[in-house]
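Saturday, quiet lab. Running sequence design on the structure tokens for the scaffold JK sent over.
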């Protein structure tokens, strides 16, 4: 009788220890980012007071918690807010739980979000291109949008989305050079929303500041390109349809 009680007590103490450790780590993370926000002169919010999770639920990153084997507890925390040339921008931590069989793990990462009704972005996704995607491209099974005049960018990134003509217009040579020179990130754009993140990586304070500054420069480049606007989308769709049928 004594042995089962001892085992249960030990298991409870172990679980409590893990919980305490996680809480301490979250508190340390919060304090580090709060200090960074003060250094950068930005307001800091421990919780999501802006409904960011709901605003961004259409993006691939925020759909993952809704899959069959994914948890439903995605959380936005440690939020910083600013403006770049009139564009509202946020930087925050996003976490969700991945379930696989009887195991689960928490994924935490740093996310940048920009919201500007003047963006007029096509739906697109950009990520570092891996060997499997290159193989699919060679086999003709699945292709991305490439720029023959900029092979470095095309070889490094996998760019997909709707309305290829508008995507090409947005991804100017200047923007391609900027992305090629910076550490690879995942980008998703849609209408007046843009998000950037490094999958599964919660950046430390120094990395966070550099990432934020690079993303703010990215916003400026995105706003400077692609002035044709949404009124030209019908014509661009027609061009894409003719290209596919030829």
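Result came back. Writing it out in full:
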């Amino acid at each position: 009788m004594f042995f089962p009680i001892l085992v249960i007590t030990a298991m409870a103490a172990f679980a409590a220890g893990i919980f305490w450790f996680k809480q301490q780590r979250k508190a340390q993370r919060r304090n580090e980012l709060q200090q960074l926000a003060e250094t950068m002169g930005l307001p800091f919010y421990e919780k999501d007071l802006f409904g960011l999770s709901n605003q961004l639920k259409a993006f691939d990153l925020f759909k993952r918690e809704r899959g069959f084997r994914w948890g439903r507890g995605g959380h936005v925390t440690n939020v910083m807010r600013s403006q770049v040339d009139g564009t509202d921008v946020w930087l925050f931590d996003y976490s969700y739980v991945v379930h696989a069989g009887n195991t689960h793990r928490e994924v935490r990462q740093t996310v940048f979000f920009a919201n500007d009704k003047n963006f007029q972005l096509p739906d697109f996704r950009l990520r570092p291109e891996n060997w499997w995607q290159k193989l699919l491209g060679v086999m003709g099974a699945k292709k991305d949008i490439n720029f023959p005049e900029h092979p470095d960018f095309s070889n490094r990134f996998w760019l997909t989305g709707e309305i290829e003509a508008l995507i090409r217009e947005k991804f100017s040579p200047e923007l391609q050079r900027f992305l090629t020179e910076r550490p690879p990130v995942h980008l998703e754009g849609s209408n007046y929303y843009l998000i950037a993140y490094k999958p599964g990586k919660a950046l430390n304070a120094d990395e966070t500041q550099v990432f934020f500054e690079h993303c703010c420069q990215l916003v400026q480049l995105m706003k400077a390109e692609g002035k044709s606007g949404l009124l030209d989308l019908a014509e661009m769709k027609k061009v894409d349809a003719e290209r596919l049928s030829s």
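Notes for JK: The two ends are 79 Å apart (CA to CA). Residues 2-40 form the longest helix (39 residues). Ask whether to fix the surface positions before the next round.
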